[in-house]
Please model this.
Amino acid sequence: MGKTAMLTSRITPETSDRLQRLAKITQRSKSHLTEQALEQYLDLNEWQISGINAAIHDADKNDASFIDHDQVMQQWVAKREN
Model:
């Protein structure tokens, strides 16, 4: 492992217990599991925010087209009925 940074965080006793149990079962350190969880959380949220920003950018274009909510719902209901 390369350089590391210290992170202090407050968690509930229940979360702490769950982390301890998982560390024991997986034979990994709590630090390893915490870093892995943070990486997954950051990956997901960065991906989601990137997608939202791209959609906003597309919606802000002069030639953007939009579909009425009621029309989308009708199509969705029709698709589910088939």
Q: What stands out?
A: The helical segments are 13-26, 30-59, 69-81. The mean pLDDT is 95. The chain has three helices and no strands. The first helix runs from residue 13 to 26.
